[in-house]
Amino acid sequence: MDEVFERILVDYDGQRSVFTMGKMAVLWELDLETGAFRSAHDLGYQTFADVDPETGAVTYREGTVPELYEEVFWCPSTSGFKSWRAMSYHPELEAFFIPIILNCETGVFGPVDRVEGGGGTGPVRRTNHMHPASPEHLGEFLAMSIRTGEVLWRHRTRTPINSAALTTAGGIAVAGDWDRHLYIFDAATGDILWQTRLSTSVQGFPITYAVDGRQYIAVPVGSGGGSWGTMLPADLTPEKQRPVGSNALYVFALPEPGGAP
C-alpha cells in the first residue's frame, strides 16, 4: 500500500504543512519544517488497518496480513484507492480534490525469493471486486477539507477517474474518466458545469494556461499506461469499451466575447 505519491505544501493558520495521500486513502499532514505528525484523516474505505488520529500510528487488523497460501480479502486491491493520479489543492476552499478508484481484492499469495533492491508482491492469485460501499461505480472524484477531513462533495462514475485533478482560482475543478468523459465541476458545490466525451480515456494531467488574456484547458487522452487503469475496468465493467489508437491532446477555451467558441 504505497505512500509514494505527490506531496502538497500548504501554509495555513501561521503554520507550514506537507500533505499526501497514498493507496489506503488516508490524508496525512506533517509539519513541513520538522516532519512531526499533525493529522490523519481516513476516508473510511480501507479495511485492513486502524489509524490513530492523534498519533498517526497504524495497526493492521486481524486476518489482513497475507500468509502463504491463505486467502485474504481487503480493500483496496493492490491498485489502491489513490494512485499516481494527483490530487489538487484549492486554497480558498481549503480543500483537496482527489481522484479515487473504489475497489477490493481477494488474494492468495505464494512464496517469493527476495533479492536486495527487489520489490513486488511475488506470485499471487487475485480476484478484483467492486467496493461494498459502491457496488455500481469504480470511480469517485471528491472534495475533502484539510481541517476536518470531511468530504464536502463526491461524484461517482461507472469507470475509474483516470486523470489527475486540476483546480483553478476561478472556482472550477477538472477531471476525466476511463470512459472518455471530461468533467468541469463547480469546485464549491460539485455541480457539473460542463462535460464532453473525448476520443478515448482521459489520461495524465490536465493543465490550464493563458494566451493574450484568454484562458485554455489542455487535456491529454490515450489508451496506454498501466497503474491498473486497464485491468479493473476489464474485470469489473466489461460492458465499457474504449477506442485504442485515439491518443490526442484536446484544448478548450470559453468563447471570446461576441465571437464563436
Question: What's the short version?
Answer:
The protein is mainly beta and 261 residues long.
Secondary-structure blueprint of this entry?
Blueprint: E1 8-12, E2 15-21, E3 26-31, E4 37-42, E5 49-51, E6 58-60, E7 71-74, E8 88-90, E9 95-101, E10 104-109, E11 124-129, E12 139-145, E13 151-157, E14 166-167, E15 172-176, E16 181-186, E17 192-197, E18 207-211, E19 214-221, H1 231-236, E20 248-253
Antiparallel strand pairs: 1-2, 2-3, 3-4, 5-6, 7-10, 8-9, 9-12, 10-11, 12-13, 14-15, 15-16, 16-17, 18-19, 19-20
What does this structure look like?
- The protein has 261 residues and is mainly beta.
- The protein has a single domain, classed as Lipocalin, CATH 2.40.128.
- The chain has one helix and 20 strands.
- The protein has one helix spanning 231-236, and strands at residues 8-12, 15-21, 26-31, 37-42, 49-51, 58-60, 71-74, 88-90, 95-101, 104-109, 124-129, 139-145, 151-157, 166-167, 172-176, 181-186, 192-197, 207-211, 214-221, 248-253.
- The strands form six sheets. Strands 1-2-3-4 form a four-stranded antiparallel sheet, with no helix packed on it.
- Strand 5 (49-51) and strand 6 (58-60) form a beta hairpin.
- The model has no long low-confidence stretch (mean pLDDT 91).
Question: Which descriptors apply to this entry?
Answer:
single chain, 261 residues, mainly beta, Lipocalin, 4-stranded antiparallel beta sheet, 41% strand
